[in-house]
Predict the 3D structure of the following.
Amino acid sequence: YPSEFLMQKITEDNQIPVHLHVSVSLQYVAGLKGNALVEFFHGNIAEVENEELRHLMWSSVLFYKTPNVEVMACVLLSTKAVYFLLDDSFIHADEHQSDFWNKENSDCENSSFHLSCCFVLKLNDLQSVNVGLFDQYFRITGHSADHIVTCLTRDSYNTHTFIQQLMAVLSLLARTPSPEPVDKDFYSEFGSKNTGKMENYELIHSSRVKFIYPNEEEIGDLAFLVAEKMDGLTNLQSLNILLYVLAFQVNHVEGSAQNTSSLQPKTLILTSSDLFLFDEDYISYPLPEFAKEPPKRDKYQLADGRRIRDLDRVLMGYQTYPQALTFVFDDVQNEDLMQNLTLDHFGE
């Protein structure tokens, strides 16, 4: 340890997504290569001497206690824990965090030091991993509200790779074996006797950590919700969700010194007749076992919806991934022109 292959892989993965802004301290981390990166991990992050760095990933993260603050993080997976290296500015983003982050060294703000705070989730405390629709994100759940983090990878490959690495690392943990399971038939295994509903697909790892994947019902619920937003004009049977992707809506900030733009996280859903943007709660659902009450907001909240028939043109940027798309719609929105003419010219 570390092998040549691991060094090369971690160096390749140590790249900040170009569209996301990070602080100077995280830019320093992103500039490290190979051996320097491993030494940095052991010198500044690792909690025990004999743990090994196995995987590195840059991702936006959300915490259960602060569901409205999405922050960039360098996610480091070792044989002992998952480390989230965060911008120091995250601590000041929300005044309700004072109990969540025990802030020390506050007098360092004006010095030449660039601080990062590191959130640690020990693998022994890990209870479940929920994978989001189409592997766009995943949520790691520990034993309390402080230990719930969602990684918004917005990339099925990154999600899949992290999950594979996490399973491999969990296999190394020595845990007391679970009691022998009682043989169950298919229906008692997957069905809830009270509701008759199929539960989400669960894979229980040998380390007793649950990996929970969405089932078809989640897409069905989403299709029903989308049909509701379309004022019931569409037959639910004929409604197909063609695309579900976590994206950003670009809002240009006018009057600023530079031509800056702010990125608003949105869930884009495309059906055969409409294009929707939703504000989605990625952290609160499904409800953790210790939750006393349901979340304050729904999982999906409609932000914008347009008919495909009103789409005039699509402008594409020339840059590589992530691709910028501009959808230009006709001025006449949500109005059927012929119907209006009929009303105007032929009475009531």
